[in-house]
Amino acid sequence: MPLSGKNCVVTGAAMGIGRTITEVLLQNGAKVALLDVNETAGKSLVQVLENQYGRERTLFLNCDVESEEQIKAAFQKAADTFGGVDGVCNNAGILTEASWEKTVSVNLMGVIKGSYVALEHMSKLNGGRGGFIINTASMAGLGPLPSCPVYTATKHGVIGFTRAMAAASEMSGYGVRFNALCPGFVQTDLFDAINSNLGRFSHLDEATRQLMQQFGLVDMSDVAEAVRQMVTDETRNGEAFLVTRQKKEYMKFPSII
Hints:
By secondary structure, the protein is of the alpha/beta class. 46% of the residues lie in helices and 16% in strands. 45% of the residues are buried.
């Protein structure tokens, strides 16, 4: 789907992968509503983006993805401001094994809530124009990260939810494609703090460092290219795109149905 003139929403947009996703959408002609709990970082980024892309193409909205009420209000504001919603990137995520309930709430429930609210605006059954939803998962959603079992579980859940929603959308006629972004280790605030957030699995921090050394750090330009491909290739639905230093590819899953 060409992005020029499309209206998009990105959660967790203020920093890291969210910022990269926002920038690639803008570079390809979209308008973007940036949703984040970090108001300082979000407003600062919008000022930078306004200088690059113009004042009418970005909008910052303070939003906690744990709150369905805040998500609904933010999406409605984005739709009212831009004239509808054509694409959504559910990117907000955390990693803290100590507060594992919050990890589940943000990483998995936040994606589900964001997707369901997005469909209220985008589904052709509701008068929407269709479009795309990209959910940020992780390499940990495709294989276990031993020091982060709950984080691993949430990212497996994101991939499973994304694939099931892709099939449901196709069978129901929503007109919305669902795909999952699965990056490896990326230099973000989440990455920088990983060893201090392992909770009861802190004794496995050395194993985590060894995995980081094995896989290396993913370049943000590769993440941006993966997002661009998933957005523009309308044949892709229900896919998981793995992005590591060694591999950049759509994953193949066994068919059980």
